[in-house]
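Ex. 9. Protein: 7-carboxy-7-deazaguanine synthase.
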Amino acid sequence: MGAIATADSAVADQTLRITEIFYSLQGEARTVGLPTVFVRLTGCPLRCLYCDTEYAFHGGDMMTLGDITTQVAQHRPAYVTVTGGEPLAQPNCLPLLTLLCDQGYEVSLETSGAMPVADVDPRVVKVLDLKTPASGEAGRNDYGNIEYLTGNDQLKFVICDRNDYEWARFKLDELALVPRVSDVLFSPSHEQLAPRQLAEWILADRLPVRLQLQLHKLLWDDAPGH
Ligand code: SF4
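Predicted C-alpha cells for 7-carboxy-7-deazaguanine synthase:
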C-alpha cells in the first residue's frame, strides 16, 4: 500500500502549464452539446493560419496534476476534454490523461496530429486533426499516427476552401480513413467557408463524413472560457 501511495503522489506532483480549466458544452465532435470540463494546456508548436486559440500559445500557470484533477472534480463532470494549444507538446499530458481515466471520466484529447499519439492511454478518445493545405501547417502532419487510431477515435479536417475539400477527400481514399475511426469530421473554417457550401459538396459526393459546426461559436461567439 505504501509503495502504491508513493507512486500515486509522485504522479500527482508532476506539473503542467495550464491556460484555463472551465466547464461548458462540448462544441465539437461526437459528444457535441454534452456538458464537459475542458483542460486547456498552454503552448503549441504550430501556427495554423485560422487558429482561434492564440491566447493559449504563451503564459498560463504551472499546476500539479493533483491540483488539475481537484479543479476538474469540482464540476462533477462525466466528460473531460484535454485540449490546447497542442496538449501533447507537454510530456506530462500523458500521465494527466491516464489519471483522468483512472478517476472514471470519459476523456477525450484534441490534438493537431503533429505529435506522436502512440503512448496516449488507450481509454482516451483521440480527436486528431489532419491539417489541410490552407492551414499553412500540412507539412506537420505525422502520418505515423494513423495506425494508432481505433474505432473509438475521430479524425477532423478543418476545411477552408474547395482545394482543402478535394485534398481531404483524396486523403480519405488514400489512407482508407473512414473505416478506421468512429467519425470523420469535416468542419468549415469559421468565416472562411460557408457551412452550407461544405454541406452541399459533401452531399454531392455522398461522402460518409459528419459535417461539424462549432457549437461554442454559435452560442458564445468564441469567447474564452466557453
Ligand atoms: S494546432 Fe490548434 S492551437 Fe496550434 S496553431 Fe493550429 S489551430 Fe492553433
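Check your answer against this statement. The beta strands are 15-25, 35-41, 61-64, 79-83, 106-111, 125-129, 154-159, 183-188, 210-211.
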